[in-house]
Each structure stands twice: as structure tokens, then as C-alpha cells.
Amino acid sequence: MKFWKLAVVAAALSASALAGAQEIKARFGTSLPDSHPQTLGARKFAELVEAKTKGHIKITVYSAGQLGSDMQMQAALQGGTQEFTAPSTATLAGLVKEFGVIGLPFSFASEQEADAVLDGPFGKKLLAQLPARGLVGLAFWENGFRNVTNSKRPIVRAEDIAGLKVRTMQNNLYIDMFGGLGANAVPMAVTELFTALESRAVDAQENPYTVVYAQKFYDVQKYLSTTGHAYDALTLLVSRKFWDRLSAPDQKAVQDAALEATAYERQTSRELNARLRGELTRLGMQINDVSPQERARMREKLQPVIAKYTAGAGEEAAKEFFAAIEQARKH
Ligand code: PAF
């Protein structure tokens, strides 16, 4: 009798231990190849999560759009069929309009300013809006300052953009931004972009050095002009359906890993940006600096677009966004 009692207790204990130790598998999809900080950050994050959970949570990274475009992956997270991704805040703006302020042209003056705004109360308030949309935002990563590349001519003056067929992200602000500079904006997923540039379906695109390099745009684009027209952040997202199933210690481990991976991703992005200009020149691109006066002229031309999207993101969010930038500038 005693023996049977003991056997039942032992069986129950080992069953619960098994449940606790059960391996949790998750997928992290990125839209860019392995050499871009988005995917390097994803791999570092996966490594950290596995270490912090002692192998309990295993994340496999699928890079370069293997799981779909940014918009498709974002929707898959909402539906609970994929666990992690890190799209541009421009992609998220389709879901939560307040995210749109990040891409407002010529807002940030430096990466450090962006860090202060995104890591501060303003960024936290943005992330707090995601759970209601089936997503949990763990941190902001860096894509960086965006520059125009094209196959036709250097952009020296604001007017040089006019008439170019420019691929933009699938985001109304970016479509109107390039429309406002006289270009024909052609929205499409980044995963289709190389072919579109190669076949000359579009003349131009706009992205930071890191994307130009990782996507090998130097093979199909001659000119890179440092327009620096917008700063772009990525949001490290997890599916809420997945998140809610994690235990509190697992959630903490994932959140801690996100913080560490954020420092790594931003540092990698900045180190790469600093050396890729030389590398892209070596690979045959002609790089020209756009003067501060021409940037100011571009900003002037974009005033109606800035006004439209400042209002579109909501008065309160826009006010808080600009106040947070002012605050960051004082420090
Ligand atoms: O151009 C884009 O689509 C974006 O910069 C990025 C980060 C490559 C994809 O989200």
C-alpha cells in the first residue's frame, strides 16, 4: 500500500517536472539577410533567450523573408502562427497610427536622440498600445537614417528626386513623402526590391547603408546620396498569444534578453554604418553628401506632408513626440 502511494506521488512529480522542463520552440522571422543588424540582433536575442532559460526556450531565426514580408509576419504574430519579428515602425504605423511619428522627415538629429526618445516614457507609451492589437513590443532596435540610392543621377538638389520612380515602404507617410518631392512612389515589400531595381521597374529606393549593403543594392544602383531624410527604428515584437502562455520567469528571461540584444543590435548597426560608406564606394557606388541647405529645402517642401502626418498620428502623440525630442536635445 505504502509502495503504491509512493509510486503515484513520484509519477505525479515527474509529470509536472516534465511539463516545466518541456522545450518551447519559437520562430523569429526577419526580412533582411544574415549580414544586417536586424538578423544579427535576432540571432543574438535567440542565443540569449536560450542561455537565460537554460535551453528551455529555443528560437530559430528565419532570415531574408523566408517566413514572408514584414506585413505578413506582423499579421502572423497577431494570429499566433509565428512568435517573433522586428519590422520597421513604419510597418507598425498601419496598425497603431501613433508609431507613424517616428518616420516624420528630418525629426531626429542623431541616433542618441532617437535612443533617448524611444527608451524613454514616449517609447514606452507607444509599446503599451500593442497588446490590444495582439502584439507585445519588447524594445526598439535600429534600422538607421535613410538615404536615397538610384540608377540615374546623384541627388545634389532637392529637385533631383523629381521624376524618379522610388520604391517606398508600404506606408502612406513614405508614399506621400516621395510624392511631395515630385517622385513617383512605388510601395512594395523589401523582399521584392532587388528584382525591381535590377529589372529597372523602379529607379530608386531609400534605406540606411546597412540595408544597401546587406541587400547588395550596389550591384544595381550607382548613386547613393546622403539625404538622411528620416530615422527608422525597428520594433522587437512577440506574438501576444505566445507571450501569454509563457510563465512569469520565462517572460522575465525573454525581456532581459531583449534588453541585452538591443544594446548589441544598436552597436552593430552603428559600427557597420561607420565603415560601410567606404565599403560601398569600393564596391562601385558613387556617394555624394547632400548639403544641410538642400536638406533644409527638402524639409521645407515636405511641410504639408509633415503637417498631414503629425495630425494623422494624433495631436497628443505628436506633441509628446516633439517634446521628447526637445528634452533629449537639452541633455
Ligand atoms: O525598406 C524597408 O522595408 C525597411 O527599411 C526594412 C527594415 C528593410 C524592412 O522592414
UniProtKB/TrEMBL annotation:
<keyword id="KW-0813">Transport</keyword>
<dbReference type="GO" id="GO:0055085">
    <property type="term" value="P:transmembrane transport"/>
</dbReference>
<dbReference type="InterPro" id="IPR004682">
    <property type="entry name" value="TRAP_DctP"/>
</dbReference>
<dbReference type="InterPro" id="IPR038404">
    <property type="entry name" value="TRAP_DctP_sf"/>
</dbReference>
<protein>
    <submittedName>
        <fullName>TRAP transporter substrate-binding protein</fullName>
    </submittedName>
</protein>
<dbReference type="InterPro" id="IPR018389">
    <property type="entry name" value="DctP_fam"/>
</dbReference>
<feature type="signal peptide">
    <location>
        <begin position="1"/>
        <end position="21"/>
    </location>
</feature>
<keyword id="KW-0732">Signal</keyword>
<dbReference type="GO" id="GO:0030288">
    <property type="term" value="C:outer membrane-bounded periplasmic space"/>
</dbReference>
<dbReference type="Pfam" id="PF03480">
    <property type="entry name" value="DctP"/>
</dbReference>
<comment type="similarity">
    <text>Belongs to the bacterial solute-binding protein 7 family.</text>
</comment>
